[in-house]
Write a structure and sequence with these properties.
The protein has about 500 residues and is mainly α. It contains 27 helices and no strands. It starts with 13 loop residues before the first helix and ends with a helix.
Protein backbone atom coordinates (compact mmCIF):
# COMPACT_ATOMS: atom_id res chain seq x y z
CA UNK A 1 0.00 0.00 0.00
CA UNK A 2 1.31 3.48 -0.86
CA UNK A 3 0.34 6.80 0.60
CA UNK A 4 -1.98 9.05 -1.34
CA UNK A 5 -0.59 12.38 -2.46
CA UNK A 6 -0.61 14.79 0.48
CA UNK A 7 -2.51 18.02 0.25
CA UNK A 8 -0.08 20.32 -1.51
CA UNK A 9 -1.37 23.23 0.45
CA UNK A 10 -3.06 23.49 3.79
CA UNK A 11 -4.67 26.75 4.89
CA UNK A 12 -1.63 29.07 4.90
CA UNK A 13 -0.92 31.61 7.52
CA UNK A 14 -1.81 35.11 6.39
CA UNK A 15 1.83 36.13 6.76
CA UNK A 16 2.93 33.41 4.33
CA UNK A 17 1.16 34.77 1.27
CA UNK A 18 1.49 38.42 2.27
CA UNK A 19 5.24 38.00 2.76
CA UNK A 20 5.69 36.31 -0.60
CA UNK A 21 3.55 38.94 -2.31
CA UNK A 22 5.77 41.66 -0.88
CA UNK A 23 8.88 39.76 -1.97
CA UNK A 24 7.59 39.49 -5.55
CA UNK A 25 6.60 43.15 -5.76
CA UNK A 26 9.89 44.32 -4.29
CA UNK A 27 11.73 41.95 -6.62
CA UNK A 28 10.05 43.55 -9.64
CA UNK A 29 10.76 47.07 -8.43
CA UNK A 30 14.33 46.26 -7.39
CA UNK A 31 15.04 44.36 -10.59
CA UNK A 32 13.74 47.21 -12.74
CA UNK A 33 15.87 49.69 -10.78
CA UNK A 34 18.99 47.56 -11.20
CA UNK A 35 18.53 47.34 -14.97
CA UNK A 36 17.71 51.06 -15.23
CA UNK A 37 20.95 51.88 -13.42
CA UNK A 38 22.96 49.29 -15.41
CA UNK A 39 23.62 47.03 -12.43
CA UNK A 40 26.02 49.27 -10.47
CA UNK A 41 29.38 47.66 -9.73
CA UNK A 42 28.94 44.67 -12.02
CA UNK A 43 31.97 45.58 -14.14
CA UNK A 44 34.19 45.35 -11.07
CA UNK A 45 33.52 41.62 -10.85
CA UNK A 46 35.98 41.17 -13.72
CA UNK A 47 34.04 38.27 -15.22
CA UNK A 48 30.84 39.59 -16.81
CA UNK A 49 30.14 38.33 -20.32
CA UNK A 50 28.15 41.27 -21.68
CA UNK A 51 28.61 44.47 -19.63
CA UNK A 52 25.22 46.05 -18.98
CA UNK A 53 24.61 49.35 -20.71
CA UNK A 54 21.22 50.98 -21.09
CA UNK A 55 20.43 51.19 -24.77
CA UNK A 56 16.67 51.70 -24.69
CA UNK A 57 14.07 50.06 -26.89
CA UNK A 58 13.26 50.26 -30.57
CA UNK A 59 9.92 48.53 -30.51
CA UNK A 60 7.78 47.58 -33.45
CA UNK A 61 4.04 48.26 -33.19
CA UNK A 62 3.70 44.49 -33.65
CA UNK A 63 5.25 44.03 -30.21
CA UNK A 64 2.03 45.32 -28.67
CA UNK A 65 -0.01 43.04 -30.92
CA UNK A 66 1.90 40.06 -29.55
CA UNK A 67 1.83 41.31 -25.95
CA UNK A 68 -1.89 42.05 -25.60
CA UNK A 69 -3.06 38.41 -25.92
CA UNK A 70 -0.57 37.14 -23.29
CA UNK A 71 -2.81 37.62 -20.21
CA UNK A 72 -5.87 36.31 -22.08
CA UNK A 73 -4.02 33.20 -23.22
CA UNK A 74 -2.46 32.63 -19.79
CA UNK A 75 -5.77 32.91 -17.95
CA UNK A 76 -7.48 30.64 -20.47
CA UNK A 77 -4.66 28.10 -20.11
CA UNK A 78 -4.95 28.02 -16.32
CA UNK A 79 -8.73 27.68 -16.47
CA UNK A 80 -8.43 24.80 -18.90
CA UNK A 81 -5.84 23.19 -16.63
CA UNK A 82 -8.15 23.52 -13.63
CA UNK A 83 -10.93 21.90 -15.66
CA UNK A 84 -8.49 19.07 -16.57
CA UNK A 85 -8.80 19.88 -20.26
CA UNK A 86 -5.15 19.07 -20.76
CA UNK A 87 -4.86 19.27 -24.54
CA UNK A 88 -6.47 22.70 -24.56
CA UNK A 89 -4.38 23.91 -21.61
CA UNK A 90 -1.12 22.77 -23.19
CA UNK A 91 -1.99 24.33 -26.55
CA UNK A 92 -2.80 27.62 -24.84
CA UNK A 93 0.46 27.53 -22.87
CA UNK A 94 2.43 27.01 -26.08
CA UNK A 95 0.58 29.97 -27.60
CA UNK A 96 1.32 32.05 -24.50
CA UNK A 97 5.01 31.29 -24.80
CA UNK A 98 5.05 32.10 -28.52
CA UNK A 99 3.23 35.39 -27.95
CA UNK A 100 5.65 36.37 -25.17
CA UNK A 101 8.67 35.47 -27.29
CA UNK A 102 7.32 37.43 -30.24
CA UNK A 103 6.62 40.50 -28.14
CA UNK A 104 10.07 40.37 -26.54
CA UNK A 105 11.81 39.92 -29.87
CA UNK A 106 10.04 42.92 -31.39
CA UNK A 107 10.88 45.21 -28.47
CA UNK A 108 14.37 45.83 -29.84
CA UNK A 109 14.03 45.10 -33.53
CA UNK A 110 11.15 46.22 -35.72
CA UNK A 111 12.61 44.06 -38.49
CA UNK A 112 13.65 41.08 -36.36
CA UNK A 113 17.21 42.43 -36.08
CA UNK A 114 17.94 40.46 -32.92
CA UNK A 115 16.90 37.16 -34.50
CA UNK A 116 18.85 37.92 -37.67
CA UNK A 117 21.93 38.77 -35.60
CA UNK A 118 21.79 35.33 -33.99
CA UNK A 119 22.46 33.71 -37.33
CA UNK A 120 25.17 36.13 -38.42
CA UNK A 121 27.77 34.61 -36.10
CA UNK A 122 28.33 32.69 -32.88
CA UNK A 123 26.71 29.26 -32.76
CA UNK A 124 25.26 29.86 -36.23
CA UNK A 125 28.61 28.44 -37.34
CA UNK A 126 26.97 25.06 -36.77
CA UNK A 127 24.31 26.03 -39.31
CA UNK A 128 26.96 27.17 -41.78
CA UNK A 129 28.81 23.87 -41.32
CA UNK A 130 25.62 21.83 -41.65
CA UNK A 131 24.73 23.56 -44.90
CA UNK A 132 28.27 23.10 -46.22
CA UNK A 133 28.02 19.36 -45.50
CA UNK A 134 24.52 18.97 -46.92
CA UNK A 135 24.08 15.46 -48.22
CA UNK A 136 26.97 14.22 -46.07
CA UNK A 137 25.53 14.77 -42.59
CA UNK A 138 25.69 11.11 -41.48
CA UNK A 139 29.22 10.76 -42.79
CA UNK A 140 30.24 13.98 -41.04
CA UNK A 141 28.78 12.89 -37.70
CA UNK A 142 30.59 9.55 -37.88
CA UNK A 143 33.86 11.40 -38.48
CA UNK A 144 33.01 14.24 -36.08
CA UNK A 145 36.31 14.31 -34.12
CA UNK A 146 38.35 14.46 -37.33
CA UNK A 147 36.17 17.20 -38.84
CA UNK A 148 36.43 19.20 -35.60
CA UNK A 149 40.22 18.84 -35.53
CA UNK A 150 40.38 20.04 -39.14
CA UNK A 151 38.31 23.12 -38.28
CA UNK A 152 35.76 22.13 -40.92
CA UNK A 153 32.79 22.60 -38.56
CA UNK A 154 33.60 26.07 -37.24
CA UNK A 155 35.18 27.49 -34.14
CA UNK A 156 32.50 26.36 -31.69
CA UNK A 157 32.36 22.70 -32.73
CA UNK A 158 34.99 21.60 -30.15
CA UNK A 159 32.63 22.73 -27.39
CA UNK A 160 29.82 20.35 -28.31
CA UNK A 161 29.33 16.66 -29.17
CA UNK A 162 27.71 15.73 -32.51
CA UNK A 163 24.08 16.13 -31.43
CA UNK A 164 24.10 19.91 -31.61
CA UNK A 165 25.50 19.79 -35.14
CA UNK A 166 22.78 17.25 -36.02
CA UNK A 167 20.10 19.59 -34.65
CA UNK A 168 21.30 22.46 -36.83
CA UNK A 169 21.47 20.08 -39.80
CA UNK A 170 17.81 19.23 -39.19
CA UNK A 171 16.93 22.93 -39.07
CA UNK A 172 18.78 23.46 -42.36
CA UNK A 173 17.00 20.53 -43.98
CA UNK A 174 13.56 21.76 -42.92
CA UNK A 175 14.42 25.22 -44.25
CA UNK A 176 15.25 23.74 -47.64
CA UNK A 177 11.89 22.04 -48.01
CA UNK A 178 9.90 23.64 -50.83
CA UNK A 179 6.62 23.60 -48.89
CA UNK A 180 8.26 25.29 -45.92
CA UNK A 181 9.87 27.87 -48.21
CA UNK A 182 6.48 28.74 -49.65
CA UNK A 183 4.94 29.15 -46.19
CA UNK A 184 7.64 31.56 -44.96
CA UNK A 185 8.47 33.39 -48.19
CA UNK A 186 8.17 36.94 -46.72
CA UNK A 187 10.49 36.01 -43.84
CA UNK A 188 12.92 34.37 -46.25
CA UNK A 189 13.07 37.58 -48.24
CA UNK A 190 13.86 39.49 -45.04
CA UNK A 191 16.73 37.10 -44.31
CA UNK A 192 17.96 37.31 -47.91
CA UNK A 193 18.20 41.09 -47.56
CA UNK A 194 21.18 40.51 -45.24
CA UNK A 195 24.12 39.54 -47.49
CA UNK A 196 26.03 37.60 -44.77
CA UNK A 197 23.01 35.32 -44.33
CA UNK A 198 22.42 34.48 -47.98
CA UNK A 199 24.53 31.34 -47.93
CA UNK A 200 22.35 29.93 -45.12
CA UNK A 201 19.11 31.69 -46.03
CA UNK A 202 16.97 28.56 -45.75
CA UNK A 203 18.45 27.40 -42.45
CA UNK A 204 18.35 30.88 -40.89
CA UNK A 205 14.74 31.34 -41.96
CA UNK A 206 13.78 27.98 -40.48
CA UNK A 207 15.72 28.76 -37.30
CA UNK A 208 13.92 32.06 -36.74
CA UNK A 209 10.63 30.15 -36.85
CA UNK A 210 11.53 26.84 -35.23
CA UNK A 211 13.69 27.93 -32.28
CA UNK A 212 10.79 29.79 -30.60
CA UNK A 213 8.51 26.81 -31.23
CA UNK A 214 11.06 24.47 -29.61
CA UNK A 215 11.34 26.85 -26.65
CA UNK A 216 7.57 26.97 -26.26
CA UNK A 217 7.29 23.18 -26.36
CA UNK A 218 9.30 22.95 -23.14
CA UNK A 219 5.97 23.51 -21.37
CA UNK A 220 4.94 19.94 -22.27
CA UNK A 221 7.60 18.02 -20.31
CA UNK A 222 7.46 20.72 -17.64
CA UNK A 223 3.87 19.80 -16.80
CA UNK A 224 5.01 16.17 -16.53
CA UNK A 225 7.88 17.22 -14.25
CA UNK A 226 5.43 18.88 -11.88
CA UNK A 227 3.36 15.70 -11.87
CA UNK A 228 6.46 13.57 -11.24
CA UNK A 229 7.66 15.62 -8.27
CA UNK A 230 4.35 16.45 -6.56
CA UNK A 231 1.77 14.04 -7.93
CA UNK A 232 -0.21 16.91 -9.44
CA UNK A 233 -0.24 18.51 -12.86
CA UNK A 234 -1.31 21.84 -11.33
CA UNK A 235 2.25 22.57 -10.21
CA UNK A 236 3.55 21.69 -13.66
CA UNK A 237 1.09 24.08 -15.33
CA UNK A 238 2.09 26.86 -12.95
CA UNK A 239 5.77 26.17 -13.62
CA UNK A 240 5.14 26.17 -17.37
CA UNK A 241 3.66 29.67 -17.13
CA UNK A 242 6.71 30.85 -15.18
CA UNK A 243 8.95 29.39 -17.91
CA UNK A 244 6.90 31.06 -20.65
CA UNK A 245 7.26 34.49 -19.04
CA UNK A 246 10.75 34.25 -17.50
CA UNK A 247 12.98 37.17 -18.63
CA UNK A 248 16.05 35.03 -19.40
CA UNK A 249 13.97 32.75 -21.63
CA UNK A 250 12.43 35.69 -23.49
CA UNK A 251 15.64 37.65 -23.94
CA UNK A 252 18.28 35.02 -24.80
CA UNK A 253 16.43 33.59 -27.78
CA UNK A 254 17.38 31.53 -30.83
CA UNK A 255 19.98 29.42 -29.04
CA UNK A 256 19.97 25.67 -28.52
CA UNK A 257 20.55 26.53 -24.85
CA UNK A 258 16.92 27.64 -24.64
CA UNK A 259 15.32 25.71 -27.48
CA UNK A 260 16.85 22.23 -27.18
CA UNK A 261 18.73 21.54 -23.96
CA UNK A 262 15.97 22.52 -21.48
CA UNK A 263 13.48 20.33 -23.35
CA UNK A 264 15.75 17.28 -23.14
CA UNK A 265 16.75 17.91 -19.52
CA UNK A 266 13.16 18.43 -18.38
CA UNK A 267 11.84 15.42 -20.29
CA UNK A 268 14.58 13.15 -18.93
CA UNK A 269 13.85 14.11 -15.32
CA UNK A 270 10.08 13.98 -15.84
CA UNK A 271 10.29 10.43 -17.22
CA UNK A 272 12.68 9.36 -14.47
CA UNK A 273 10.46 10.82 -11.75
CA UNK A 274 7.26 9.44 -13.25
CA UNK A 275 8.88 6.03 -13.48
CA UNK A 276 9.56 6.05 -9.75
CA UNK A 277 6.15 7.51 -8.90
CA UNK A 278 4.19 4.99 -10.97
CA UNK A 279 6.47 2.02 -10.44
CA UNK A 280 7.31 1.84 -14.14
CA UNK A 281 10.78 0.52 -14.91
CA UNK A 282 10.17 1.30 -18.59
CA UNK A 283 9.61 5.01 -17.90
CA UNK A 284 12.75 5.14 -15.76
CA UNK A 285 14.76 3.54 -18.55
CA UNK A 286 13.29 5.98 -21.07
CA UNK A 287 14.42 8.78 -18.77
CA UNK A 288 17.94 7.37 -18.84
CA UNK A 289 17.88 7.00 -22.64
CA UNK A 290 16.73 10.63 -22.93
CA UNK A 291 19.69 11.63 -20.76
CA UNK A 292 21.95 9.82 -23.20
CA UNK A 293 20.42 11.82 -26.03
CA UNK A 294 21.08 14.99 -24.03
CA UNK A 295 24.74 14.15 -23.51
CA UNK A 296 25.02 13.47 -27.25
CA UNK A 297 23.92 17.08 -27.74
CA UNK A 298 25.74 18.82 -24.88
CA UNK A 299 28.25 17.66 -22.28
CA UNK A 300 27.02 20.55 -20.14
CA UNK A 301 23.93 18.48 -19.33
CA UNK A 302 25.92 16.11 -17.11
CA UNK A 303 24.43 17.74 -13.96
CA UNK A 304 21.01 16.60 -15.17
CA UNK A 305 22.01 13.06 -14.16
CA UNK A 306 21.98 14.28 -10.56
CA UNK A 307 18.66 16.05 -11.08
CA UNK A 308 17.11 12.90 -12.60
CA UNK A 309 18.30 10.74 -9.72
CA UNK A 310 16.94 13.34 -7.33
CA UNK A 311 13.57 13.30 -9.09
CA UNK A 312 13.37 9.54 -8.59
CA UNK A 313 14.23 9.77 -4.91
CA UNK A 314 11.76 12.61 -4.33
CA UNK A 315 8.97 10.75 -6.12
CA UNK A 316 9.72 7.58 -4.14
CA UNK A 317 9.65 9.45 -0.83
CA UNK A 318 6.33 11.03 -1.75
CA UNK A 319 4.71 7.77 -2.85
CA UNK A 320 5.75 5.59 0.10
CA UNK A 321 5.49 8.38 2.65
CA UNK A 322 5.20 7.09 6.16
CA UNK A 323 6.18 3.50 5.30
CA UNK A 324 9.79 3.76 6.41
CA UNK A 325 13.22 4.40 4.95
CA UNK A 326 13.65 0.82 3.76
CA UNK A 327 10.69 1.12 1.40
CA UNK A 328 12.03 4.39 0.03
CA UNK A 329 15.48 2.89 -0.54
CA UNK A 330 14.08 -0.25 -2.16
CA UNK A 331 11.80 1.68 -4.51
CA UNK A 332 14.45 4.26 -5.37
CA UNK A 333 17.18 1.69 -5.94
CA UNK A 334 15.18 -0.25 -8.52
CA UNK A 335 14.47 2.87 -10.53
CA UNK A 336 17.98 4.26 -10.18
CA UNK A 337 19.27 1.01 -11.69
CA UNK A 338 16.70 1.32 -14.48
CA UNK A 339 17.73 4.93 -15.13
CA UNK A 340 21.41 4.01 -15.33
CA UNK A 341 20.59 1.04 -17.56
CA UNK A 342 18.60 3.29 -19.89
CA UNK A 343 21.45 5.79 -19.98
CA UNK A 344 23.95 3.05 -20.77
CA UNK A 345 21.73 1.59 -23.48
CA UNK A 346 21.09 4.98 -25.02
CA UNK A 347 24.74 5.95 -25.10
CA UNK A 348 25.69 2.43 -26.17
CA UNK A 349 23.35 2.60 -29.16
CA UNK A 350 24.76 5.99 -30.22
CA UNK A 351 28.37 4.93 -29.75
CA UNK A 352 27.92 1.47 -31.22
CA UNK A 353 26.08 2.88 -34.21
CA UNK A 354 28.92 5.28 -34.92
CA UNK A 355 26.85 8.37 -34.13
CA UNK A 356 28.86 9.34 -31.04
CA UNK A 357 32.53 8.72 -31.89
CA UNK A 358 35.17 9.12 -29.16
CA UNK A 359 32.85 10.56 -26.47
CA UNK A 360 35.46 10.63 -23.68
CA UNK A 361 38.02 12.43 -25.83
CA UNK A 362 35.26 14.78 -26.98
CA UNK A 363 34.40 15.58 -23.37
CA UNK A 364 38.01 16.49 -22.56
CA UNK A 365 38.19 18.59 -25.72
CA UNK A 366 35.04 20.44 -24.67
CA UNK A 367 36.35 21.06 -21.15
CA UNK A 368 39.66 22.37 -22.50
CA UNK A 369 37.74 24.62 -24.89
CA UNK A 370 35.59 25.91 -22.02
CA UNK A 371 38.63 26.85 -19.94
CA UNK A 372 40.36 28.52 -22.88
CA UNK A 373 37.22 30.38 -23.96
CA UNK A 374 36.74 31.67 -20.41
CA UNK A 375 40.46 32.51 -20.05
CA UNK A 376 40.66 30.21 -17.05
CA UNK A 377 38.06 32.19 -15.09
CA UNK A 378 36.12 29.05 -14.18
CA UNK A 379 34.75 27.86 -10.84
CA UNK A 380 35.33 29.25 -7.37
CA UNK A 381 34.80 32.99 -7.12
CA UNK A 382 34.36 33.16 -10.90
CA UNK A 383 31.54 30.67 -10.59
CA UNK A 384 29.87 32.96 -8.08
CA UNK A 385 29.96 35.86 -10.52
CA UNK A 386 28.47 33.47 -13.07
CA UNK A 387 25.66 32.81 -10.62
CA UNK A 388 25.10 36.53 -10.24
CA UNK A 389 24.87 36.89 -14.01
CA UNK A 390 22.44 33.98 -14.29
CA UNK A 391 20.07 35.38 -11.69
CA UNK A 392 20.36 38.91 -13.07
CA UNK A 393 18.85 37.68 -16.34
CA UNK A 394 16.46 35.19 -14.73
CA UNK A 395 15.09 38.00 -12.64
CA UNK A 396 15.20 39.21 -9.06
CA UNK A 397 11.61 38.06 -8.37
CA UNK A 398 12.46 34.48 -9.34
CA UNK A 399 15.67 34.62 -7.29
CA UNK A 400 13.91 35.89 -4.17
CA UNK A 401 11.05 33.42 -4.63
CA UNK A 402 13.55 30.56 -4.84
CA UNK A 403 15.31 31.77 -1.68
CA UNK A 404 11.99 31.86 0.16
CA UNK A 405 11.23 28.33 -1.06
CA UNK A 406 14.62 27.16 0.23
CA UNK A 407 14.01 28.75 3.63
CA UNK A 408 10.61 27.10 3.87
CA UNK A 409 12.14 23.77 2.89
CA UNK A 410 14.71 23.99 5.66
CA UNK A 411 11.89 24.58 8.11
CA UNK A 412 9.60 21.73 6.99
CA UNK A 413 12.04 19.09 5.73
CA UNK A 414 11.40 16.95 8.82
CA UNK A 415 7.63 17.04 8.32
CA UNK A 416 6.66 13.84 6.44
CA UNK A 417 3.91 15.48 4.39
CA UNK A 418 6.30 18.13 3.07
CA UNK A 419 9.61 16.26 3.06
CA UNK A 420 9.62 15.29 -0.63
CA UNK A 421 9.11 18.81 -1.96
CA UNK A 422 11.56 20.23 0.57
CA UNK A 423 14.22 17.75 -0.52
CA UNK A 424 13.52 18.56 -4.18
CA UNK A 425 14.10 22.25 -3.49
CA UNK A 426 17.23 21.76 -1.40
CA UNK A 427 18.61 19.16 -3.83
CA UNK A 428 18.20 21.62 -6.70
CA UNK A 429 20.03 24.24 -4.66
CA UNK A 430 22.86 21.78 -4.04
CA UNK A 431 23.22 20.89 -7.75
CA UNK A 432 23.11 24.58 -8.67
CA UNK A 433 25.88 25.42 -6.21
CA UNK A 434 28.06 22.51 -7.33
CA UNK A 435 27.75 23.56 -10.98
CA UNK A 436 28.45 27.15 -10.02
CA UNK A 437 31.53 26.48 -7.92
CA UNK A 438 32.99 23.74 -10.14
CA UNK A 439 32.38 24.93 -13.70
CA UNK A 440 30.62 28.29 -13.45
CA UNK A 441 31.91 31.28 -15.34
CA UNK A 442 30.55 34.16 -17.36
CA UNK A 443 27.84 33.70 -19.98
CA UNK A 444 26.01 31.49 -17.50
CA UNK A 445 22.73 33.29 -18.22
CA UNK A 446 22.71 31.38 -21.51
CA UNK A 447 24.61 28.24 -20.52
CA UNK A 448 22.36 27.46 -17.54
CA UNK A 449 19.00 27.96 -19.25
CA UNK A 450 18.42 24.21 -18.84
CA UNK A 451 18.11 24.77 -15.08
CA UNK A 452 15.25 27.28 -15.35
CA UNK A 453 12.43 24.67 -15.64
CA UNK A 454 13.56 23.11 -12.36
CA UNK A 455 13.62 26.44 -10.55
CA UNK A 456 10.22 27.24 -12.01
CA UNK A 457 8.82 23.96 -10.66
CA UNK A 458 9.91 24.36 -7.04
CA UNK A 459 8.96 28.05 -7.06
CA UNK A 460 5.53 27.23 -8.47
CA UNK A 461 4.97 24.60 -5.78
CA UNK A 462 5.96 27.00 -3.00
CA UNK A 463 3.74 29.79 -4.33
CA UNK A 464 0.79 27.43 -4.60
CA UNK A 465 1.27 26.21 -1.03
CA UNK A 466 1.38 29.77 0.33
CA UNK A 467 -1.44 31.33 -1.75
CA UNK A 468 -4.65 32.41 0.00
CA UNK A 469 -7.40 29.82 0.45
CA UNK A 470 -9.63 29.71 -2.60
CA UNK A 471 -7.08 31.57 -4.75
CA UNK A 472 -4.35 28.99 -5.43
CA UNK A 473 -2.81 30.98 -8.28
CA UNK A 474 -2.85 34.41 -6.63
CA UNK A 475 0.91 34.43 -6.03
CA UNK A 476 1.57 32.85 -9.42
CA UNK A 477 -0.22 35.78 -11.07
CA UNK A 478 2.01 38.21 -9.15
CA UNK A 479 5.13 36.26 -10.17
CA UNK A 480 4.10 36.28 -13.83
CA UNK A 481 3.44 40.04 -13.73
CA UNK A 482 6.80 40.60 -12.04
CA UNK A 483 8.48 38.57 -14.81
CA UNK A 484 6.76 40.51 -17.56
CA UNK A 485 7.63 43.87 -16.01
CA UNK A 486 11.31 42.95 -16.17
CA UNK A 487 11.34 41.72 -19.78
CA UNK A 488 11.44 45.20 -21.43
CA UNK A 489 13.85 46.42 -18.75
CA UNK A 490 16.17 43.50 -19.41
CA UNK A 491 15.87 43.97 -23.16
CA UNK A 492 16.70 47.65 -22.88
CA UNK A 493 19.64 47.16 -20.57
CA UNK A 494 21.80 44.58 -22.35
CA UNK A 495 22.96 43.44 -25.74
CA UNK A 496 22.08 39.73 -25.84
Amino acid sequence: MVASAPPLRAAPRRGAWVGRAIVLVLGAIGGAALWATSWPGHRETGNWFFPVSWRGLDASPWALAFALPIPVLAIAAMRAASARRHARALALLVMTSLAAQGASLLLVGPSLETALDRFAGGHAEFLVAAHAHEGRIAETIRAYPERVAEGALGGFAPSKPPGTFAYYALIDRIGGDETFRALVRPLRELVWARPPLRRIVDGATAGIVLFPISTALVVLPLVLLGLALTGRTSVGYDAALLWATCPVVLVITHHTDGALYPAIATLACALAGLGARRGSIVLSMLGGATLGLGLWCNYGLLPVIGLALGAQIVASIDVVRGLGARRVIARSAAHVVALVAGLALGLGALIGGGWFPEPIEGYHTAIDYHYRWKLGFVGGRWGLTGGLEFWAWTGLPMFLAFLVACLRSLRVVRVPAHRALALATLGLLAVHLVVMLYAGSNESARLWLFQVPFFATVIAADLRIASPVGRPRFLLALAVMANLVLVPMTRAGQVW
